[in-house]
Each structure stands twice: as structure tokens, then as C-alpha cells.
Amino acid sequence: MPVPLDEALAQVRELLVDPDRLVRAVAAGRRRSSVPRWRKVELRPVDLHSGRCLQVTAYDERQAHTSNQAYGADATAAVDALLAEPFGNWHVETTETTVQVRVTKRGQAQVHRRARVAPADAPDPPTPDGRASRAHDRVKVRLLDPSEPLWRALGITDASGVVKPSRQDKYRQVEELLRALDPMLATVPVPQGRPLQVVDLGCGNAALTFAAYRFLSLRGGAPVHLTGVDVKSQAREHGAAVAAELGWSGDVEFVESTVAHAPLDNADIVLALHACDTATDEALARAVTWQAPLILASPCCHHDIQRQLTAGGAGAPAPYEALVRHGILRERFADVLTDALRASLLRLVGYRVEVLEFTGSVHTPRNTLIRAVHTGAPPAVDQVAQYRALTAAWGLTPRLQTLLAWEGAPWAEPPSPPPPG
Q1: Sheet holding 351-357: strands in order across?
Q2: Crossing angle of helices 327-348/278-290, nearest 10°?
Q3: What structural domains and CATH numbers belong to the chain?
């Protein structure tokens, strides 16, 4: 049954200011007619040299803001300020219970209580009394430890295995791509009598290349052979030198070539991190030609469709002229439209496709990931019709469509019947 909101928040307040019972609390969401200052707030007790404090981490749209408030007047004032914000939901974990408060449309509160069960995959081990760790600096579970020699060889960490401040963004991008790769490995058949073939198309400085090789090797199963492809000779030379330094030259090799003409015959996993413009289309086309079981591509620089929109094509279908009238909006719309068309084409040729954000925009504005698993399923009639209608309405010919063109392709219009007689 709903209870008065003030009564529910008073219960939450009692738990938040108790340093011995609170494990963790999260406030998020908004109420019907109000927006809180923060997107999300997390609270937990931490033990510092000065004593136990309430750590408050508040998230806006770009970053996290962390402060530590001494228990007593400071922590209580911080809690009262947060309870005054119009958050729609509070989730509070204590040593005994989990309390959830949801604000209804009528401004009342739904309160749910249950016995607390610590998650098995919690990032911090529990203390002997069963409480969450109160260490100030929690250790995040990494798929590849920063102390791995490959990070130092790539110039991402220093001699002590600490990620350099200037390379934090690159490290985070690669780490999150590995996280996107990890759950999909079960979809890749284990090769028999040969290594797992992995290709990084447009590998650049090869951070993802080496990280993927090490990560896949640690996973066990079949041995791994990884090929990095880049059009620049310095990329090939740099990659070969790092492979030799790490003792991986026999398993990690580099080819100087365009993506479209790289001398490769097949791949089990295709990676493409920020291959510029139509190089992403070439990477996807090569993967489709090989019927690669798994594709992960993070596109960059979507100029092709933007040029076609600028050139006019069939003109923007009414009433969508406003989407392409201004340069900045046309650029952003072209980004979305390009990746939507790529995802649609992959579905038409037998892939199950997800388009997701693999890391925060603070680390890279090019944070869209196309993740595709080959199923071989034929396209549905409505998928074909939607793709044809979309490209026809905007007068577009995506580069990936051109690269995948073959007689009888699903997106090709059926031939006109011959004239009678």
C-alpha cells in the first residue's frame, strides 16, 4: 500500500545516516513534474585516515563528482539535501535488508523491503562481518590487468603498471570493447585443428589488436591467431615491433593494406575500431563475405551518407527537410542513418544485430558499437520492405550495399516482367 512520501523518506534518512548499517544506496529517476539536479547519486560508508565518512558520488550527464562527508552534521546535511531532490526512486542496502522506495504519480511512496543478499559478483569482497568493503578506493574488476606487459609496450601504462593520464581514454575504450566481446564468445564455434582466426581491420596503433589477442588467449580453448590490417606502413612496423617485444610474433601479425584488399581468406571474429568512413563498410563487407560468426565494429567519420544528403539525392522526404537543413543536424542525422542502414543490411544477409553504446562519450564521441552474430537466417519480408522504402525515400545508396551487391540480393528490386508478346 502507498504511504506518505515524507514518512518513506524519513525511513530512508534513518538508514543513510547510520554508518554501521548502511552498505550502499542509490537515488535515480525523476518525479512526475520535477527533475533532480543529478542523474544518479550513490552513497556508501568509507574508512579514511580521518575516520569513517559517507562517500557521495553524484553523476551529471558527463562525469562523476565525489565527496566524503564526516559522519555527524556534515553527512546529515548532505543526506537531507539529497532527500530534498525530486528523485523518483531510492534503493538502500543495509547489513540486514534492502529497501526500495518508488514515488508514485500521485506523490506517494511505494516501499518494499526484503532480506539483503549480497551479489556473487560484487566488485569488493565482503568484510568478515558480512558487510561490503569500506575501502576508499575500490578495485574494479578488469578483464586485462593494467600490469600486463602489453600495456607498457604500447605506451599506455608506465613502468609501474599504472595507466598514464593521457592514455586513460584509450585504455577505457579497449577495456569496454573487450567487455562487449566477452559475452558473445559463446556464439563463435570452437575451430577444430586450427587456431581461432581473429582480424582487426583498420588496427591503427594496435591497442585493441594486442589486448584482444591476450584476452582470447587467456580464455583458453583453441589457440589464437590475430591479424592486424592497416593502410599505413608505420602501423605495420609498430605492430610488428611490439609483437616481437612481447614474444608474440608467431601469433600476431600485421599487414599493410587497405581493408578491401587485405590478403585474407577467412575470420572467426572481425574487429574494426574507428575505421574511418567507408573503411567500416569495407570491414563489414569482408566479414559478411567470410560469413564471420562474430563482428564488432565501432564506426567513425560518417561522410558517405552525409555527402549523399548534401548532394540532394531524391531530396528529404516531406516533412523531414528540417533534419538536413542545418549542417550540424545533417551531420548528426547522417551518423544515425548510416549505422541504421548498416545494421539493416547485416540483418538482410543473415546476422542478428545490436547497436549499442560501448563506452561513455567522455572517453570518445565515437562510442557506437555494431555487434553482429551470424545466424544464416533469411530476412523477413517486412525487413526487406523497410530497407527498400528507407533508401528510396532519401535517395540513398549506402556504400555497404554497393560492396555487397550480387544478383538477387535481398534489397535489389525484382526485375520487371517482360512485355507481353
Answers
A1: 252-256, 224-230, 196-201, 269-276, 294-300, 368-374, 351-357
A2: 0
A3: 5-115 (no CATH), 149-403 (3.40.50.150)
Partners of residue 228 on adjacent β-strands: 200, 254
Backbone angles phi, psi at 171, to 5 degrees: -60, -45
Residue 294 β-bridge partners: 269, 373
pTM value? 0.65
Q: Write out the three cell numbers for 167.
A: 592514455
- pLDDT value at position 365? 61
**Angle between the 278-290 and 303-311 helix axes, to the nearest 10 degrees?**
120
Residue in 247, 187, 184 with CA at minimum distance from that of residue 213: 247
CA-based R_g, the chain, Å:
26
pLDDT for res 122: 44
Edge to edge, what strands does the sheet with 109-115 contain?
64-70, 51-59, 40-48, 22-28, 89-94, 97-103, 109-115
* 245 and 153 Cβ atoms separated by less than 8 Å: yes
Neighbouring CB atoms inside 10 A of 292's CB total: 23
Alpha-carbon span 42 to 46, nearest angstrom? 12
Give mean pLDDT in consecutive 10-residue pieces for the chain, a chain of 421 residues. 89 93 89 86 87 89 83 94 93 89 88 65 45 51 82 90 87 88 86 92 92 88 90 94 94 94 94 86 94 92 85 72 86 91 94 82 68 91 92 90 81 58 48
Separation CA 279–CA 287 (nearest Å): 12
- Can you give the pLDDT at residue 352? 92
Confidence at residue 368, expressed as pLDDT on a 0 to 100 scale: 87
